[in-house]
Amino acid sequence: MPTYKLSYFNVPGRGELIRLLFSAAKVEFEDHRFEFSEWPELKSKMPFNQVPVLYIDGTPLCESGAIFRYLATEFGMNGANSLQAAYIEMVHGVLHDVYSKLPFMEKDAKVKKEKTTAVHQEHILPALLKIEKKFSESKRQYLVGDKLSYADLKLTNNLILTEERAPEILPQLPNLCALRDRVRNLDGVKQYLASRPISKM
Amino acid sequence: MPKLKLSYFDASGRAEVARLILAAAKVDYEDHRFSFEQWPSIKPDTPFGAVPVLYIDGVPLCESGAINRYLAAENGMNGANNLQAAYIEMIGGVLGDVFMKVPYFEKDPKVKADKLVKVFRENILPALGKMEKKFGERGQQFLIGDKLSYADLAMCNVLMHTEAHDAKYLKDIPKLNALKDRVRNLDGVRQYYAVHLPKGF
């Protein structure tokens, strides 16, 4: 097993799925988190002036998608074949498209709350309803294939945010919520979720 | 071999790498292209209101990354192992990040031209410069590993558009430019470009 170090801001953002993969796989890694104030000095040290960066035995790998797909494949969480891997990436992509519309950087609390509700109604809920329908028809335990994939971890992380910030949409998504609850209680994931910093974003 | 149909606007955009993979692999498919005017009538029939969509024996797969990586894996253009696949995705991701800043839809020609100069100077050329250096040090024919990958096709795509926009940008990246010219002349790709030559930004 190589040594792993993840460098990212001390926020969930594009680092969280990576951290969840390590947790679910119960693989040790150095979770290097830094504050925004440290970024100007660190930026020029990164291969393409961006984070996250995953150091694999000290060699950097950039781009969050490259990182989490690499780890998911290494840890057996990227489907059983390339078609399943494609559907896993599709579900992740759809979730990313809609959840990234949330006003993470908004400083006005009232505006942030209104926009959060609006994004959930206009973008997140319609997408999740489609996924809920397919998922309930499939009668599977996981979103794609028959074992945990990074799509399940992504969904779980997103629904935990929705639970905090727009819970009113959740009654329409019973099967996805049940999946979320199975995944959040997995050994490794449970401990990570209990110990991770609370995010203000 | 499944029956493939790729649905997207009549533009390179987020479908071009998939088209290039299929061209280089010399795999038959329906290259369904539609106009912006037709989009409102096509949108409701797509799974998540977005394109590209790849229909595999009629079953839709969405999200350009999922489509690209599926086609690449099926056609031997996703590296020899998981780590190579990660570096291939990294290159594709960095190119996507910097070229996404191009003001594709800016209507004012002067504003567009000025923004393009800025994006090339601040984002695109620095990233390409780093890649040129690494590629030069590696001294290989392809960006990753020892055969064509979709990273080479992604690089060819952006550099073909760059050449059409303003060839002067290629003079400081001679090895990447030579790669572009090797790839554009590959059997399959050559014939594709004879019909769909990139027009710039």
Question: How would you characterize the overall build of this protein?
Answer:
The complex is a heterodimer of chains A (201) and B (201). Chain A has 201 residues and is an alpha+beta fold. In chain A, 37% of the residues are buried. Chain A is built from 8 helices and 4 strands. In chain A, strands 2-1-3-4 form a 4-stranded mixed sheet. The radius of gyration of chain A is 17 Å and the shape is globular. Chain A has helices spanning 16-25, 39-43, 64-74, 82-99, 109-138, 150-165, 174-184, 189-195; strands at residues 4-9, 30-34, 53-56, 59-62. The longest helix of chain A is centred in the middle third of the chain and has 30 residues, at 109-138. Chain B is α+β, with helices and mostly antiparallel strands and 201 residues long. Chain B has helices spanning 16-25, 39-42, 64-74, 82-99, 109-138, 150-166, 174-184, 189-195, and strands spanning 4-9, 30-34, 53-56, 59-62. Chain B has a 4-stranded mixed sheet. In chain B, helix 1 (16-25) links the parallel strand 1 and strand 2. The longest helix of chain B has 30 residues, at 109-138. The relative contact order of chain B is 0.14. At the A-B interface, helix 3 and helix 4 of A face helix 3, helix 4 and helix 5 of B.
